[in-house]
Amino acid sequence: MFFMIGLSKQDAGSVQRTVEYSQQLMERLKAGERFLPFISPLAPFIEPGSDAFESPDKLGYRIFARTLAEHRDLLLKPSWKYVLNYETDWMTREGIVKATYAAGLGMNDAKEKTGVIAKEAAQAVRDRTRLAIEAMSKIDTAMRSPDPESSLFALRDELRDLSESTVCDKKELDWSRRSFYWSIPKAGISLLLGR
Fold first, then answer.
1. Among the ranges given (31-45, 69-83, 101-115, 167-181), the one the predictor scored with the smallest mean pLDDT
2. What CA–CA distances, in Å, run from 57 to 4, 51, 60?
3. For residue 63, what are the β-bridge partners?
4. Arithmetic mean of pLDDT, 22-40
5. Peptide linkage before 48 cis (omega within 30 of 0)
6. Mean of the pLDDT values across residues 146-151?
7. Smallest Cα–Cα separation from 52: which of 21, 113, 9, 116?
8. Is the pLDDT assigned to residue 195 strictly greater than 60?
9. How far is Cα 195 from Cα 182, in angstroms, rounded to an integer?
10. How far apart are CA 154 and CA 162, in angstroms?
11. Average pLDDT value over all residues in the chain
12. What is the pLDDT of residue 23?
């Protein structure tokens, strides 16, 4: 089950309550093979054509890129915080980033507590998340410097390895033929056909 961060009327407190709810579900449903929750931001963009993109004021969104060129420019930014094409009345870009890391750590702890992931895997996610938070801070400092481009260039090697598997282990997203998830479409078709 996937939960989103950055929705209309959602604040950091409601994101945290989603993590708590997920833990309750994991405890009740004996999570792992049958139930595995994830939480992540609505990223990188609110899609053009969607209600939130076309009428952002009505839903409490602020859109930072409207054209293809503006979206392309965002994709060149140094971190996912700066790539986001939106923020809400309830969470700024910075708030979405902080809520995402807090939720990722909370979901990781809940998965460890309920036995969905091993202690070592949980610690590895905590370590990567801590490094990602530190990297975000360094990027923010570089972006505020008199010469952001040179400051960011100096960080490139240090930051390159942090670009994947931050708030969950990449193996948790395995949808290969060997994983439980591969059977979901077949099960859905069987249900529809009454088999």
1. 167-181
2. 20, 10, 5
3. 86
4. 84
5. no
6. 91
7. 9
8. no
9. 18
10. 15
11. 85
12. 93
Residue type, 93: R
> How far is it, in rounded angstroms, from Cα 101 to Cα 83?
16
153: closest CA among 138, 137, 131?
Answer: 138
Q: Rounded to whole angstroms, how far apart are CA atoms 103 and 15?
A: 7
39-41-44 Cα angle (round to 5): 145
Round to whole Å and give the CA distance between 129 and 131. Answer: 5
The pLDDT, as a whole number, for residue 43 is 85
- Determine if residue 163 is left, alpha or beta; phi over 0 gives left, psi from -120 to 50 gives alpha, anything else beta: alpha
Q: 38-41 and 86-88: which strand pairing?
A: unpaired
Q: What is the pLDDT of residue 172?
A: 56
How many angstroms separate the CA atoms of 7 and 20, rounded?
Answer: 18
Count other Cβ atoms within 10 Å, centred on residue 102.
18
- DSSP summary character for residue 49: T
* Sequence-ordered alpha helix ranges (H) in the chain: 12-29, 51-54, 56-59, 68-75, 80-83, 93-113, 119-144, 148-160, 183-193
Contacts of 73 (CB under 8 A, 6+ apart): 65
